[in-house]
Amino acid sequence: MTARAFVLDKERFSPWRPLSHVTWRYGLCLVAAFLVSLASALAQSPVPGRASALETLIIWLPFILKGFALNLLMSFLAMGLATVTGVALGLMQISLLWPVRVPSRFVTHLLRNSPWLVILFAIMFMLPAELRLPGGFRIPLPDWGKATVAFALPVMGNISEIVRGAVYSIPTGQWESSEGLGFTRSQTLRWIILPQCVRRAIPPWMNWYALLTLSTPMASIFSIHEAVSNAQAGMEAAGARPDLLFPFYLFLLCLFFAYIYPMALWTRRLERKYAL
Q1: Which of 52, 175, 220, 258 could form a disulfide with 228 if both were Cys (CB 3.0 to 4.6 A apart)?
Q2: CA triplet 32, 73, 34: central angle to 5 degrees?
């Protein structure tokens, strides 16, 4: 029997992490596909008096990028809202009071297990067009604002579960030691437990931000002028030609991939760094 039989393989017993399979080769393959699509668009026989697919894409490029900026704005605001409310909901889940703990668990499971598209439809039709405050003040609530709230809700439920799991992953000996030193439960949570939870929660938090950003094109269903909706409007304005579909949609794919892919690689490094 060799000495290797007594060596514990940490990678073999570590939990499965999907981003550990992400490499730079996927980005290279996508860039190659985009270049092939451009070459295919250029190789098509041009029609006199009509712009080619590549020229049409270049014309509508600023309009599409303007829509992509709205995608990013919605993702930033939704993630901020989901983080604040999700952390509060997660702390309510570990409360010692059952009237606080049970409803928060119900809300968490409801949001985590509901389809994003159903939540989007519900929020878009339930929220009013403007909020009326005491004193006659009115705050307009545009469609992209409603969509931002809708995207934040399912992420809030998942962040709540991340917080609950991170707190329970801390060894109970630290709670007992803090109690022995005279710390109250809130002091232990604030000064000892939560600082350790932050680094454990960062990789899944980044994963959910990436998923949230990729879900924002669903707002195009309600004609919100984000990237996909603007690309479709550009194609319709150019005559709705079939040869525009592949270059336009592949450009959208590359656009989102170029934004998400470095984040996925960074998350992968953090997963390795903070692996338990």
Answers
A1: 220
A2: 10
At residue 43, does pLDDT exceed 70? no
Which amino acid type is present at position 75? S
Q: Report the C-alpha gap between 275 and 48 in whole angstroms.
A: 60
Looking at the DSSP assignment, which residues form a beta bridge with residue 140?
130
Side chain identity at 22, as an amino acid letter?
V
**Confidence at residue 13, expressed as pLDDT on a 0 to 100 scale:** 44
CA distance 21 to 23: 6
Alpha-carbon distances, residue 155 vs 87, 111, 148, 162, 244 (angstroms): 11, 8, 11, 10, 34
Report residue 52 CA to chain centroid gap.
Answer: 35
SS3 131: strand
Pick the range with the lowest mean pLDDT from 21-25, 28-32, 146-150, 222-226: 21-25
Between 242 and 41, the more confident residue is 242
Q: CB within 8 A of 215, min separation 6: which ones?
A: 116, 151
The region of weakest confidence among 56-70, 96-110, 128-142, 252-266 is 128-142
DSSP alpha helices (H): ranges in the chain?
10-13, 24-43, 53-93, 98-112, 116-126, 143-168, 172-180, 185-188, 194-215, 227-237, 245-273
- For 138, the 3-state DSSP assignment is strand
What crossing angle do the helices spanning 194-215 and 143-168 adopt, rounded to 10°? 150
Q: Angle at the Cα of 265 (from 273 to 19), degrees rounded to 5?
A: 80
